[in-house]
């Protein structure tokens, strides 16, 4: 069930759009939080924490060292709640006053007080503090959109989910880490909670490691395992939001998931039977290994995260979007090449089969008829004359078949104009000598159309030829109109005549010509519709997909 939901294209796009919208909203919220939060100034300079100097008191509120941590990195929920209570008290004091008395103490236990003014950061201050991280964030969002647009597959979606989740992680952590000392309590609480939830979305990289470049056997057999990853993410988020666990509690599990992810990637890198894919995985593995190691180290030292450290994390982690996109691009190119080789082999087999069934059969018939003509050369001139006419027909038919094969494989005649010109000549050759008026109309609406593959060229030519032969032999028509309509990824051919018509249900399965058309359409994943009734002509509608 989980896999079915994840495979729904609309749900995938909804998830990506929701994440992107959340990113944009929180980016503005972070700037607004920095802009409106109380900031302490002394002599027009922003008061910040400095090495060796501690703030021990604001007004009458005693402050210990942990109260000024950027994040509540405690192992127990009770200590984290105490940290939040202190933040709430300080926020209330700063919002009620325009000036506050701050007590400082250095390493020598020397204390002093200053009267600090309460103001706000300027736009320039905010840009200077968060500009580089926001730039990295924009690159992440563009990468998330790009990777899923170019690769609308499960690995592409998981990559986009991961990148947009990591972007949300960065953009919510940035104002928390880059605040001078304090942040509005409401915004601080919201940003930290969303930062935690966004960090759990990085479990998607474990999912990616188990399906790229190929789905691991354990996932193929037990798809429900994927629900464990995302179930963990949801469960751990709810437990934190409800206050049952603290921020730092999940750190050991985070390291565990990183190990699982790297193990999955290492397994692909070492065990994949395809040498190209093993080389491909090396690039992906080492890029993710470097960023994961850097990320885990930063998590281990959450207490000491500084502004410069977050900027370094953001910029260094840009390895990820580029390596993921490049890996998926390379895999797609490789798969396309393999598909071209498979199609080429199929095309050779098809041409071999066609030549065997047509030209070689005609040559065999020519040989037999020639032998018969030679036997009666001096005995029955009339019989010999009939045999020579048969040889002529077989030779002409073989020539047409060979010309068709040469046209199909000729790269110099690979456009739709060439296809239409060939069909027009064929129509004139088959119908005009019988005084049947023949016309072709083209509808393309000036859209970009993929070039026809050799198999499509051959199928269209043979279907068209079979249909016109049926018209010339059975329809008793005097007008045949062919319309060719091009869509973005399809071509629709409609062959209409004003002949005698027939009951489709009675003749469809017994007509050799219609059976040939049906088989050729099916071989190319096309669709066939035959419309006819006695006295009202016939309409053959053929649709081929274009790739």
Explain this structure.
This protein is α+β, with helices and mostly antiparallel strands and 547 residues long. The protein folds into three domains: 2-37 and 122-337, Up-down Bundle (Rhopdopsin 7-helix transmembrane proteins); 49-119, no CATH class; 413-547, Heat Shock Protein 90, CATH 3.30.565.10. Helix content is 63%, strand content 12%. It contains 19 helices and eleven strands. The strands form two sheets. The protein has a six-stranded antiparallel beta sheet, with helices on one face. Strand 8 (479-486) and strand 9 (490-497) form a beta hairpin. Helix 5 (154-177) packs antiparallel against helix 13 (319-357), helix 6 runs antiparallel to helix 9 (225-241) and helix 7 packs parallel to helix 10 (251-271). The chain is elongated and about 135 Å long.
Give the total of beta strands. Answer: 11
The total count of helices amounts to: 19
Order of helices and strands: HHEEEEHEEHHHHHHHHHHHHHEHEEHHEE
Helix content: 55-70%
Shape: elongated
Could you give a short account of the major beta sheet? 6 strands, antiparallel
| CATH topology (fold) name of the largest domain | Rhopdopsin 7-helix transmembrane proteins
The spatial strand order of the largest sheet comes to 2-1-6-5-3-4
Overall average pLDDT: 84
Query: Structural class of the secondary elements?
Result: alpha+beta
- Whole-Å distance between the termini? 31 Å
Overall tally of domains: 3
The radius of gyration is 37 Å
Strand-helix topology:
Blueprint: H1 2-6, H2 9-36, E1 39-42, E2 45-46, E3 53-58, E4 61-62, H3 77-96, E5 99-106, E6 111-119, H4 123-150, H5 154-177, H6 185-200, H7 204-211, H8 217-221, H9 225-241, H10 251-271, H11 275-300, H12 307-316, H13 319-357, H14 359-375, H15 381-409, H16 416-431, E7 437-443, H17 454-475, E8 479-486, E9 490-497, H18 504-507, H19 512-523, E10 527-532, E11 538-545
């Amino acid at each position: 069930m989980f896999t079915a939901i994840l495979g729904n294209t609309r749900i995938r796009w909804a998830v990506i759009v929701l994440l992107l919208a959340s990113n944009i909203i929180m980016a503005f919220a972070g700037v607004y939080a920095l802009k409106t939060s109380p900031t302490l100034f002394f002599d027009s300079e922003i008061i910040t924490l400095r090495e060796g100097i501690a703030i021990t008191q604001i007004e009458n509120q005693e402050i210990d060292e942990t109260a000024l941590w950027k994040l509540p990195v405690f192992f127990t929920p009770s200590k984290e709640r105490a940290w939040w209570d202190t933040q709430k008290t300080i926020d209330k004091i700063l919002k009620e006053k325009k000036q506050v008395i701050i007590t400082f103490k250095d390493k020598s236990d020397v204390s002093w007080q200053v009267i600090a003014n309460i103001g706000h950061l300027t736009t320039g201050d905010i840009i200077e503090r968060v500009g580089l991280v926001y730039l990295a964030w924009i690159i992440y969002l563009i990468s998330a959109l790009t990777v899923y647009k170019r690769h609308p597959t499960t690995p592409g979606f998981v990559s986009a989910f991961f990148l947009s989740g990591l972007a949300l992680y960065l953009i919510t952590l940035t104002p928390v880490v880059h605040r001078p000392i304090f942040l509005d309590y409401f915004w601080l609480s919201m940003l930290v909670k969303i930062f935690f939830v966004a960090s759990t979305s990085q479990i998607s990289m474990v999912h990616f490691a188990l399906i790229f470049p190929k789905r691991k056997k354990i996932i193929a057999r037990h798809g429900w395992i994927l629900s464990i990853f995302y179930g963990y993410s949801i469960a751990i988020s709810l437990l934190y939001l409800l206050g049952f666990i603290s921020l730092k509690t999940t750190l050991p599990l985070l390291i565990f998931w990183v190990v699982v992810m790297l193990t999955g990637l290492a397994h692909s890198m070492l065990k994949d039977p395809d040498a190209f894919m093993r080389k491909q995985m090396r690039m992906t593995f080492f890029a993710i290994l470097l960023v994961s190691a850097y990320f885990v180290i930063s998590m281990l030292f959450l207490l000491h995260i500084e502004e410069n450290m977050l900027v370094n994390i953001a910029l260094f982690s840009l390895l990820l979007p580029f390596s993921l996109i490049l890996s998926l691009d390379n895999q797609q190119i490789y798969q396309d090449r393999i598909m071209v080789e498979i199609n080429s082999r199929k095309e050779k087999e098809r041409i071999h089969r066609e030549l065997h069934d047509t030209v070689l059969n005609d040559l065999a018939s020519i040989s037999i008829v020639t032998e018969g003509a030679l036997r009666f050369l001096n005995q029955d001139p009339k019989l010999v004359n009939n045999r020579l006419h048969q040889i002529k027909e077989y030779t002409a038919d073989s020539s047409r078949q060979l010309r068709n094969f040469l046209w199909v494989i000729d790269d110099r005649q690979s456009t739709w104009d060439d296809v239409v010109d060939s069909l027009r000549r064929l129509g004139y050759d088959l119908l005009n000598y019988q005084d049947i008026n023949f016309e072709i109309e083209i509808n393309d609406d000036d859209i970009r159309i993929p070039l026809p593959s050799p198999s499509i060229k051959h199928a269209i030519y043979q279907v068209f030829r079979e249909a016109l032969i049926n018209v010339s032999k059975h329809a008793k028509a005097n007008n045949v109109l062919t319309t060719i309509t091009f869509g973005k990824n399809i071509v629709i051919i409609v062959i209409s005549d004003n002949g005698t018509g027939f009951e489709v249900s009675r003749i469809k399965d017994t007509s050799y010509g219609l059976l040939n058309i049906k088989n050729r359409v099916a071989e190319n994943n096309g669709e066939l519709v035959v419309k006819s009734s006695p006295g009202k002509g016939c309409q053959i509608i053929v649709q081929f997909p274009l790739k």
